[in-house]
């Protein structure tokens, strides 16, 4: 029998500090009960008898909350939950099937580390074109599928199982991409078949490196075998393109939670109801990550291979864990699929004013594309990849992939504030105790990145669509210092400079030489385009002409001399120029035509000193200006030679117009 306890000081006397005595031998109403127990009756006791039961009460099953549309037209509508789950698993099993040895693997949803084994649904998927020769060990095991996990679930998977994954002080997850900290363009290949041989851009200047169908299938088999050998794989079913009429269903099968979370952020996230009715994907990525390709395989030049098969609508990744390969691989796919539907795919930023005026921003690294397209007075439609269709513009992606090197709250407040729970930080360095990130640290790589959903940007327009653009802005950081701060372009000039994709970088200073180096990237994204650049340019001009858009060339680089002599054009001046373009005031300005490049420059821009608008006026040495101008014109002409023999349309008239819009000297 328990004793009654009286916590008093001495023989029933009060405590020395004057506090009341604490007694447990009563019920608070003066009634003394020998067996009284002190407990809290403010809430009823939990309805669980064991810890496992208690833990089971902690989680509840997700259910669709979005209204069903279309009267049950989806492929999984009017099905029981068991039938829906079975069809979903059949689709995933078919994606993971070997092409030669067996049917699809036995798949089951859930984490294999959980104590309670989920119901196993064996899904034999017959492949009509494949002859089953033998059954491999992978066919005897179950492959656990972690399907469209939430960011919180993916955090748990990454931190528990992936070395190098940590939660930072702001709630973002930091991870490492392994040996590769950037894309491997020389290891990216496209299957060349009867169709793609005619349709794609091959040869000099093209980013498309060919491979044959058999080699692709060898690499596909290698990736699928590796994924099937794992205890678990991550599967994301998501969308590309916010334009519902033209969106693409994509499936990403990967080995790492980091990759699944990255694509969760970068692709458009389906609603629960859309996920139930997802059906068969239009395109599938098999990301085997660190597992290398066989270097003795034909066409392989390293242990890395990123392979696109446009006929099969599949992509295989071997030997690299850099997540950007998936993002840009899908962008290449969109550069092929969208033009077939007369939709222009664009490597650009895009924003919209409060009156519905849309502007496209093109520019290579260092031109200010992100800074200038991010405007608190305008809505952000997207920062990198877009489509221009008969419906207007639409963002291809559901997220942003921002550079982090030297990031600060003052320079990029929106990006800074977007780095929170759900954001993936790649290859950054942080304090081991506080977990605060040092964005200036280049110990791992200079290409540090952050991936986050677009809704993390306060002024993002959701859904990410807009009307037809009014302005097409081509940005160039001209380190030669001879291009005007702003010039209005004709359609032919827009096509010429769009195809050229010019900017200038400053060379390294190892030997003490600081000369600008011209950089050209066709369509401001040569690494991702599939067709000949002039085809995209012709589509751009056609849409600009049809919808009354104006082209502009904006120099964010140097004035008064080349790099090392002159000075960079002040950002406030460039912002004033962009504001004038948005407002439409530059359309009514008086213009003067320059020599050599034949650019139309305005006589005045509100808030910008008139003397800097004509670059010749800013150079003290006029002879040096003319020499540098002719030098840059020659670089443009040399770069354009590889495009000049491509015939556009039924005759060469458009080609001739584009060539005539280039520099003349």
Automatic annotation (TrEMBL):
Which segments carry the region annotation Disordered? 1-91, 96-115
Q: Give the Enzyme Commission number.
A: 4.1.1.49
Keyword NADP appears in the UniProt entry:
no
Record protein name field? phosphoenolpyruvate carboxykinase (ATP)
Q: What's one GO BP annotation on this UniProt entry?
A: gluconeogenesis
Main EC class of this protein?
lyase
Which keywords accompany this UniProt record? ATP-binding, Cytoplasm, Decarboxylase, Gluconeogenesis, Lyase, Nucleotide-binding
Q: Which NCBIfam families match?
A: pckA, PRK09344.1-2, PRK09344.1-3
Please name the source species. Answer: Wollemia nobilis
Which Gene Ontology CC terms are recorded? cytosol
């Amino acid at each position: 029998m328990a004793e009654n306890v009286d916590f008093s000081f001495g023989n029933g006397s009060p405590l020395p500090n004057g506090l009341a005595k604490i007694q447990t031998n009563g019920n608070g109403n003066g009634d003394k009960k020998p067996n009284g127990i002190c407990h809290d009756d403010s809430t009823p006791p939990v309805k669980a008898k064991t810890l496992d039961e208690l833990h089971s009460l902690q989680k509840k099953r997700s259910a669709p909350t979005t209204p069903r549309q279309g009267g049950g037209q989806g492929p999984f509508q009017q099905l029981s939950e068991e039938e829906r789950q079975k069809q979903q698993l059949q689709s995933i099993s078919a994606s993971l099937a070997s092409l030669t040895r067996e049917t699809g693997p036995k798949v089951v949803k859930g984490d294999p580390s959980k104590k309670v084994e989920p119901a196993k649904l064996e899904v034999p998927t017959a492949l009509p074109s494949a002859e089953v020769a033998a059954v491999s060990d992978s066919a005897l095991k179950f492959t656990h599928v972690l399907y469209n996990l939430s960011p919180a679930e993916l955090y748990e998977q990454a931190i528990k199982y992936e070395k190098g994954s940590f939660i930072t002080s702001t709630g973002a997850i930091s991870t490492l991409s392994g040996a590769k900290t950037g894309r491997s363009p020389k290891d990216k290949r496209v299957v060349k078949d009867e169709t793609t041989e005619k349709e794609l851009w091959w040869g000099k200047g093209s980013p498309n490196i060919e491979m044959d169908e058999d080699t692709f299938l060898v690499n596909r088999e290698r990736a699928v075998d590796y994924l099937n050998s794992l205890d678990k794989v991550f599967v994301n079913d998501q969308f590309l393109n916010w334009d519902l009429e033209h969106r693409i269903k994509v499936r990403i099968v990967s080995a790492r939670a980091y990759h699944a979370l990255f694509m969760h952020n970068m692709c458009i996230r389906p609603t629960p109801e859309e996920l139930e009715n997802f059906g068969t994907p239009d395109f599938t990525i098999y990301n085997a990550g660190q597992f290398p390709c066989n270097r003795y395989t034909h066409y392989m030049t390293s242990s890395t291979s990123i392979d696109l098969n446009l006929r099969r609508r599949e992509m295989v990744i071997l030997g690299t864990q850099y997540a950007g390969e998936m993002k840009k691989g899908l962008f290449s796919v969109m550069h092929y699929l969208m033009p077939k539907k007369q939709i222009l795919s664009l490597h650009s930023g895009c924003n919209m004013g409060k009156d519905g005026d849309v502007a496209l921003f093109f520019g290579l690294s260092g031109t200010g594309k992100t800074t200038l397209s991010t405007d608190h007075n305008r809505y952000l439609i997207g920062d990198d990849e877009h489509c221009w269709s008969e419906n207007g513009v639409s963002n291809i992606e559901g997220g942003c992939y921002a550079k982090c090197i030297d990031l600060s709250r003052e320079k990029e407040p929106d990006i800074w504030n977007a780095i929170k729970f759900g954001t993936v930080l790649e290859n950054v360095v942080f304090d081991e105790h506080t977990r605060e990130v040092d964005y200036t640290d280049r110990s791992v790589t200079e290409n540090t990145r952050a991936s986050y959903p677009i809704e993390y940007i306060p002024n993002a327009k959701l859904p990410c669509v807009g009307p037809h653009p009014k302005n097409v802005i081509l940005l160039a950081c001209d380190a030669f210092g001879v291009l005007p701060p702003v010039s209005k372009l004709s359609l032919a000039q827009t096509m010429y400079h769009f195809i050229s994709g010019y900017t200038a970088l400053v060379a390294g200073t190892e030997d003490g030489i600081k000369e600008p180096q011209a950089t050209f990237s066709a369509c401001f994204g040569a690494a991702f385009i599939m067709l000949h650049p002039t085809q995209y340019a012709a589509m751009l001009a056609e849409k600009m002409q049809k919808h009354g858009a104006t082209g502009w060339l904006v120099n964010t680089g140097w004035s008064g001399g080349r790099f090392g002599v002159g000075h960079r054009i002040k950002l406030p001046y460039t912002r004033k120029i962009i504001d004038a373009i948005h407002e439409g005031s530059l359309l009514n300005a008086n213009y003067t035509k320059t020599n050599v490049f034949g650019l139309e420059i305005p006589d005045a821009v509100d808030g910008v000193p008139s003397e800097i608008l004509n670059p010749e006026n800013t150079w003290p040495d006029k002879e040096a200006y003319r020499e540098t101008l002719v030098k840059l014109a020659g670089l443009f002409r040399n770069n354009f030679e590889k495009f000049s023999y491509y015939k556009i349309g039924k005759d060469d008239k458009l080609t001739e117009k584009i060539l005539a819009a280039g520099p003349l000297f």
